[in-house]
């Protein structure tokens, strides 16, 4: 509760004293990245939302996915747990994605495939591959470790911080660099553009909608675009709730085959 009130108070001060805040722009890129990570991935102590995903290929053909995301933080900026349970369409129903995200070191990821009754461990090398056939990557869902990149603040505008990021291990990813636009007021990353080894822009992630939920700025709609093929995936988030009091046991391997129905129910 204190954390939530502090967030509301902070946002109110930002709105009241916008000029003063902008007069004292952040200059330390690591502080900017850390605040953006907290704003995007650490809202509240835990959270749940229902996502509707529309995958559109270059010919305009569409597929849909629906799933519920549960999240629990061990501490702000630290380890996290994620559970993603699919409900539609029928061919992915009851597919479950479990993540143990480690602030220091590689994340642990598992995927349960109900048709095969198989739990598949996703290796660290697969984190930048397609998430259930969409244009989102596994890493987009749970977040990229900021320690994997070098960061440089290249521009500060009236509304945004523009940060350029280059991977420390160039052989571990498909991009050579990416740029992030971070909104000053909310500190939410609102656009990310990826460049390949030829320095050609090929992928874009952008926020299409936000709102305050329990006083916390929250993304409600986003899109990933493949700028080479023209295909894209759009995702909308509904029934969002924070600080529900989830226990760590909700995110055990047992939940892959037996998802926690109590937390998957829509909040009243």
From TrEMBL:
GO terms for biological process: protein transport. Keywords: Protein transport, Signal, Transport. Residues 1-23 form the signal peptide. SUPFAM superfamilies: Prokaryotic lipoproteins and lipoprotein localization factors. The keyword Protein transport applies. It comes from the Bacteria. Residues 78-257 form the Uncharacterized protein TP-0789 domain. The keyword Transport applies. InterPro entries: LolA/LolB/LppX, TP_0789-like. Monomer. This is Uncharacterized protein TP-0789 domain-containing protein. It comes from Amphritea japonica ATCC BAA-1530.
């Amino acid at each position: 509760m204190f954390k939530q009130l502090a967030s509301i108070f902070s946002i109110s001060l930002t709105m009241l004293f916008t000029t003063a805040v902008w007069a004292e722009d952040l200059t330390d890129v690591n502080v900017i990245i850390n605040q953006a990570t907290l704003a995007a991935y650490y809202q509240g102590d835990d959270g749940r939302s229902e996502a509707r995903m529309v995958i559109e290929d270059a010919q305009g053909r569409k597929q849909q996915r629906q799933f519920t995301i549960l999240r629990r933080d061990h501490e702000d900026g630290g380890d996290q747990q994620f559970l993603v349970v699919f409900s539609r369409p029928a061919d992915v129903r009851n597919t479950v994605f479990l993540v143990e995200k480690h602030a220091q070191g590689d994340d642990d990821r598992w995927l349960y495939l109900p048709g095969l009754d198989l739990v598949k461990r996703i290796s660290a090398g697969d984190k930048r591959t397609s998430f259930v056939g969409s244009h989102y990557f596994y890493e987009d869902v749970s977040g990229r470790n900021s320690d994997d990149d070098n960061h440089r603040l290249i521009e500060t505008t009236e509304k945004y911080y523009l940060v350029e990021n280059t991977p420390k291990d160039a052989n571990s990813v498909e991009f050579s660099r990416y740029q992030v636009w971070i909104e000053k007021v909310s500190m939410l990353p609102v656009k990310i553009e990826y460049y390949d080894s030829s320095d050609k822009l090929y992928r874009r992630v952008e926020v299409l909608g936000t709102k305050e939920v329990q006083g916390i700025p929250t993304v409600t709609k986003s899109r990933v675009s493949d700028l080479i093929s023209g295909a894209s995936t759009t995702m909308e988030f509904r029934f969002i709730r924070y600080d529900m009091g989830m226990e760590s046991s909700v995110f055990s391997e047992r939940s892959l085959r037996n998802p926690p129905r109590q937390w998957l129910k829509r909040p009243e």
